[in-house]
Design a protein that fits this description.
Helix content: 40-55%
CATH topology of the largest domain: D-Maltodextrin-Binding Protein, domain 2
CATH superfamily of the largest domain: Periplasmic binding protein-like II
Strand order of the largest sheet: 3-10-4
CATH class of the largest domain: Alpha Beta
Strand content: 15-25%
Order of helices and strands: HHEHEHEHEEHEHEHEHEHEHHHHHH
């Protein structure tokens, strides 16, 4: 329920007065262009929340004419490359669109303003926090070899069960190869296919709700990581050659390597640098700690909130994060609009 906060209106009034008296501060809040600024709203929750957050800062803080357009990783990257549209993609997974991104770099019409997640995108095998606390002996994927008995289930025939990646996803091949590289089958483990992303999420929810042991593939930032307080198992150092083989279903000799770090960019068309330098300054500062976005997504999942509602929740509950992106007068305008 929304509550009336008289101090918010006092602060807004003070800011408005200070802006009127200080032209230099006012210029910091100018958009720089009357043209429409398009922002890609991707199909998954974190990207949609960040798109709404970007639009609010631009429209309310800088007085821009910004609007959201539908997007997804490869179509958006392709459109940015060929048409300079959309102008901003707040969560573009470069590791997923690597070939297209290389073309963008060569052409020079799109650049990475910042890394949207401070720790990058995270894939791996995860356990619940209560299990990690109770079993400090299981810190890494290699520790699983000696502790299959901790993860047995009624249906697993006395074997430890690892919940793998859903069929058809790129992570399925990597998880299968890692399972082989660790020789887990010979250490009384089974690799269990969840059948779908929805089933994997449901399995994690069921296990955590019952406070049962679990080890499963997942990725982040996502609502699942934040909502169920999952802890990522450590892995050996990333090795490009080993990881390349792990991505190949015909890898002849899979060896253990850390997942390739997920590079996730705030991608921006280069022409905005001249048209709207203040906007680009903001986008260059835009970055969110993984724990913060996980918690926002968990709240949204619990409340069945829309991306816009989740963006407002982020603004209201994590001022320390987003106010560092913009000048003080811009921040105050955004606060007053909430």
């Amino acid at each position: 329920m929304k509550t009336f906060n008289p101090m918010k209106f006092v602060a807004a009034g003070l800011v408005a007065g200070s802006v009127a008296l200080a032209p230099a501060a006012a210029s910091a809040a100018e958009c720089g262009t009357d043209e429409k600024i398009t922002i890609a709203e991707m199909t998954w929750l974190s990207a949609a929340v960040l798109a709404h957050a970007t639009r609010k800062v631009l429209n309310e803080g800088y007085g821009c004419n910004a609007e959201l357009v539908p997007g997804d990783t490869v179509p958006t990257a392709t459109s940015m490359l060929s048409k300079n549209e959309p102008m901003i993609a707040p969560e573009l997974w470069l590791s997923t669109a690597e070939a297209i991104w290389k073309k963008m770099e060569d052409k020079g019409n799109v650049f990475k303003a910042s890394d949207i997640f401070t720790e990058g995108g995270k894939e791996g095998w995860w356990v619940p926090d209560y299990f990690a606390e109770a079993h400090p002996e299981v810190k890494s994927v290699t520790d699983l070899k000696d502790h299959a008995e901790l993860f047995t289930e009624v249906a697993s025939d006395g074997k430890g069960r690892l919940y793998g990646c859903p069929p058809g996803w790129g992570c399925e091949i990597i998880t299968n190869n890692l399972f082989e590289a660790l020789n887990l089958e010979d250490h009384n483990w089974e690799l269990f296919s969840p059948g779908s992303g929805a089933n994997l999420k449901a399995s994690i929810a069921r296990k955590v709700t019952r406070k049962q042991p679990l080890v499963a593939y997942y990725w982040g930032p996502t609502a699942v990581i934040g909502k169920y307080n999952l802890v990522r198992l450590e892995m050996p150092e990333y090795d490009a050659e080993k990881f390349q083989c792990l991505t190949d279903k015909d890898c002849a000799n899979p060896q253990v390597s850390e997942w390739k770090p997920g590079e996730v960019a705030v991608a921006v068309v280069t022409e905005l640098k001249e048209k709207a330098p203040n906007v680009v300054d903001f986008l260059s500062n835009m970055s969110v700690p993984n724990k913060v976005i996980n918690s926002v997504l968990a709240w949204a999942d619990d409340e069945s909130a829309s991306p816009e509602e989740a963006a407002n929740y982020f603004f209201k509950n994590h001022e320390d994060v987003w106010t560092a992106w913009v000048p003080a007068d811009v921040a105050e305008k955004v606060k007053a609009s909430l």
